[in-house]
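fyi for ur records
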Amino acid sequence: MKESSVLTNQELYDKIYDGIYPKKENIMILVCAIVIASIGLNMNSQPVVIGAMLISPIMAPVQGLGMGLATFDARLTAKALKLLLLEAGFAIVAAAIYFLLSPITYASAEIISRTQPTIWDAIIAVFGGVAGMIGARQKEPNNIVPGVAIATTLMPPLCVMGYGLYERDASFFFGAAYLFLVNVSFIMITAFIVVQVLQVSKRKVVNKDEEKKRKYLMIGLALLIMIPSIYSAGTLVRKQVAQQNAQSFVSQEFTPFYVLKQEVDSDNHELVVDTIGSELSEEQVAQLQAEMANYNLNDYQLVVRQVADSDSLSLQDIDRYLEEKAQETRSISDTRPLSSAAANESINRQQEMIKRELFSEFPNRITSITLRNSETRAGEETGIVEVTPSGNVTEEDRQAIMEAAEKLTKDASDITVNLTD
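which gave:
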């Protein structure tokens, strides 16, 4: 007869019960995991954070709470709760010490993202809890429980709580604490339900009224914890919609201008756009403000910050922008480094200056700028700047580009500018 690959109900109970004994080794592993996760959050590195969650032992007491409540085992429940609080306390203190010693203490995107839990975190915890109990029932070692630990992110919120403690910032501390509470509660509640479905034997005799009362208590707890996350999810959705609308607005209405960056300040209802190149008049800004209504941004104020110094625009910015424009038009950008490795350094600098000045003056009217080197019959080195105007430019635009190029090359006889189709 083939041996079953899953544990019996009693074996499952024993496995979870044995897993909640406090061990020095587990505490040390937890501290190591917390430090690794804190480094990952500090350096904005998701792979490091994931690695830390893989070695974290914090799932065991959460499952123990669900098992203890479902089987009316007060001793198991108390031991699991005690271990969870102990591990959480060690984790928060270890994270706070790390940030105290770390030379980098700014709030990275990874840290900030752990302070605003939403309903999706609760949903992930629910399905993660189901998967975790299924994994716990398997006799053979598997990666289900570690996978659940990653998906439900139990470790990072504790690290952020430590960060909030170090910074004495209540918003970070309590935001992360709520995320940890959401994850722990819904994994526990799901474990409670799975144990009920599996009909694991209760550890004391209970009547139906007492059992029904506990089920209602778990439902009430779930609803109470879920309400703030629903509100947070609504806020997040509104921010994302505003971001998408703003991106569409800028890409459609700012085509004559080079946009360095755009930011949506949802708290102050402002869309901040940094531009360089042709200066926007007050009438143009007012017209753009009126157009925002067509992108569902009626309640947003447009703030245009114009960078007057074209030297602040790096060649890397220009190349990145031209590459993005080429992808939009599904063409290949010809912008590339000088072809000659031994090119004259003075010519190179002049070519780069011409490239910057032309692009700054005619943003969105140039598809690509190619820098080349050539050699005359006399062995002298010359530079060539090939400018490809956008397909929709007028003859006047082409003439203006050539006039600007002639001015830039007036004192550079060894550099020529050509317009290509």
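Residues 308-312, 328-343 have pLDDT under 50 and may be disordered. thats all i got for now
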